[in-house]
């Protein structure tokens, strides 16, 4: 287990490679910042084609977590982990417990949770080797499925976008496209349907689509939401959905979704702004999940966590107000707010206490 030089070049505090040949574990843990507290972020289990792809992903995701936790008002830093491999074929109790021991070896600098490819049951297994884990089942003293409040928070973000763009949070009759209806997306669809929106969905998994339609038969299915005329486009699958190929084709007024790292590269947010498409930064609106799991650290109370997640509405409005005042895209405004809090509150650690 060694610190990676990449962490120093990218601004990260620490990058750790974890390997256990006996169980097949190959993982990378990236800690971007502990200025506000221990670095909290989920574990992604994914069959990356190359180790360099996994490293690039974990570095970006961990920085996003630092900004997300800062904007959510949490006293937590940002970190993330990736396990390299197909969870459907290589995930075992032994592998997860080996991973848990690596998390434990960091002494609380990093606290893990669920992400793509990992679930509540997996966190219960990891917790058998370390206490530095959230997103556990209720039976194990945890908050359960963090997708519940992730979707709720994104819904609050969409409401804030609607108010900013149209002067009202009312979504009745608004056409909303949800790209990816897995863990978070299918919960988001429920909120949107209840709010009276006309929902269109897309997913590479027919099973995921049929699960949604079994509950909400009125939902439409599209092969290409990017090309559909929408009021709101909600990317809720993997990152990079907003890129040089997709953004020019978008026919929507608002982009607000749950997927992490939606902007394929710097400058895409400016292209969206130039096209008069209102973009809600992903790490701002998808913070409901981390709010939910972080509440475990204080003895989980769902109602308390949901009240905190409701604050995403006001924070989104504050980001739009700052963007307008400073003449910058919302993504830049969100970065500035997060960086300001990390700097101002993190500085307090220089004041020594007994």
TrEMBL record:
Domain of life: Bacteria
InterPro entries recorded: Aminoacid_DH-like_N_sf, Glu/Leu/Phe/Val/Trp_DH, Glu/Leu/Phe/Val/Trp_DH_C, Glu/Leu/Phe/Val/Trp_DH_dimer, Glu/Leu/Phe/Val_DH_AS, Glu/Phe/Leu/Val/Trp_DH_bac/arc, NAD(P)-bd_dom_sf
Entries under SUPFAM superfamilies matching the protein: Aminoacid dehydrogenase-like, N-terminal domain, NAD(P)-binding Rossmann-fold domains
Protein name: Glu/Leu/Phe/Val dehydrogenase
Species whose genome carries this gene: Amycolatopsis acididurans
Glutamate/phenylalanine/leucine/valine/L-tryptophan dehydrogenase C-terminal domain segment(s): 144-350
Manganese as UniProt keyword: no
Family in the record: Belongs to the Glu/Leu/Phe/Val dehydrogenases family.
Organismal lineage: Bacteria, Bacillati, Actinomycetota, Actinomycetes, Pseudonocardiales
Keywords for the protein's UniProt record, in alphabetical order: NAD, Oxidoreductase
